Automatic annotation (TrEMBL):
Organism of derivation: Phocaeicola vulgatus (Bacteroides vulgatus)
Top-level taxon: Bacteria
Protein name (database record): Glycosyltransferase
Keyword Transferase: yes
Gene Ontology MF terms: transferase activity
Assigned keywords, A-Z: Transferase
Length: 364
């Protein structure tokens, strides 16, 4: 099968491409490079500076378009699949649909349908936009609403969703957002994550628990990092001899991956029902994750045994209490670490994910 993956989100398309190539499919990946990834093997890596801006990006894309024909499958990482004007991407989508056999949409992060669901306060007990019955009035949330609910991105999202062959989601929230409107062509398939050959597993006796948290400068409220950070430092203040903290601010992914090495526990995000990519990468290393992992997520995944993630909610002292409980029961860390590694191998093996994608592509 000849496959084109367009756009990138924390390396998921590249990981999927490598798995598909091992299965002897021809796969090309088209993506602008960005601040977090630095892969050089893309069909079309675009490293244009801000000075050239949209004009150069558009020119480069127009030069590339004739190559983007004749594929059996094209998959877009999300509706805003390249960093260009959404109005232009509408015509790119139409070109791709006309000149290729099938086209699929990825529901992997924020988009119109996700935000629309979140703004319905009854859809989830809590989410990035609503918690404890109140709207989370943050800059990130305001910008997301402006871009997706009132800007052309939202219209583009609806056009693609209605005209594509299928939609692949990899988070409980994104599945819940798309399924009511596109039940016949929406499929949940986990993210592809490479397992490490020799992941770290902490010893059963830990003298001092090493916590890791990554923050974004001036965006501490993003994903509830401010609340996680506050609870973690409260823990350190009360138990300084039992734990230590490693934190980074606005760190590119490859550096973030390096900094978390050697840590026992990573604090990922709040307001989520399912673990994000950073959490999954940490778990592949044997690092215990504190973040989102509600039962709805495990049920959708079909997992009835493993519960490796310490699920935290935006309720009272839930974060602090669970961190303190972990500190008081450090003997559990080793087992949670082993369970995390098993969880990634069981559900996120790239070859397994690639087979699920192939099956979905062929049937739709």
């Amino acid at each position: 099968m000849k496959i084109l993956l367009i756009g990138e989100y924390s390396n998921i398309h590249w990981t999927l491409a490598e798995a598909l190539r091992k299965m002897e499919h021809r796969v090309d990946v088209l993506s602008h490079s960005n601040l977090w990834l630095n892969n050089s093997d893309y069909l079309y890596p675009n490293r244009s500076s801000i000075r050239w801006g949209v004009l150069k990006n558009t020119f480069n894309l127009l030069k590339t378009l004739p190559q983007l024909r004749g594929y059996d499958v094209v998959q877009l990482v999300n509706p805003y699949f390249l960093k260009l004007k959404p109005e232009l991407l509408q015509y790119v989508f139409q070109y791709l649909k006309k000149n290729n056999k099938k086209i699929f949409l990825g529901g992997f992060e924020y988009d119109f349908y996700w935000i629309y669901m979140c703004l319905n306060k009854n859809a989830l007990r809590y989410n990035d936009f609503y918690a404890n019955g109140a709207f989370r009035d943050t800059i990130d949330n305001k910008m997301a609403i402006i871009n997706w609910m009132h800007g052309f991105r939202g219209k583009l999202n609806r056009i693609i969703a209605n005209n594509c062959n299928g939609i692949i989601t990899s988070l409980y929230e994104s599945y819940l957002a798309y399924q009511p409107y596109f039940s016949g062509k929406t499929k949940y398939i986990p993210f592809p994550i490479e397992s490490l050959p020799h992941p770290q597993i902490p010893s059963k006796k830990i003298e001092k628990v090493k916590f890791y948290i990554s923050l974004k400068h001036h965006r501490e409220e993003w994903k509830g990092k401010d609340e996680l950070y506050s609870a973690l430092y409260k823990l350190y203040y009360r138990h300084p001899s039992a734990c230590e903290i490693k934190q980074t601010v606005f760190t590119p992914y490859d550096e973030c991956e390096h900094f978390m090495d050697g840590c026992d526990v990573m604090l990922d995000q709040l307001y989520s029902y399912s673990p994000g990519l950073n959490a999954l990468y940490a778990m592949s290393k044997g690092i215990v994750v504190v973040g989102g992992a509600e039962e709805e997520h495990y049920n959708l995944l079909g997992e009835d045994r493993l519960r490796p993630i310490i699920n935290v909610r935006p309720e009272g002292n839930d974060i602090y209490n669970k961190l303190e409980s972990l500190l008081a029961n450090t003997n559990k860390i080793s087992q949670l670490s082993a369970d995390s590694i098993e969880y990634i191998k069981k559900h996120h093996c790239p070859i397994k994910v690639a087979k699920e994608c192939l099956d979905f592509w062929e049937k739709n």
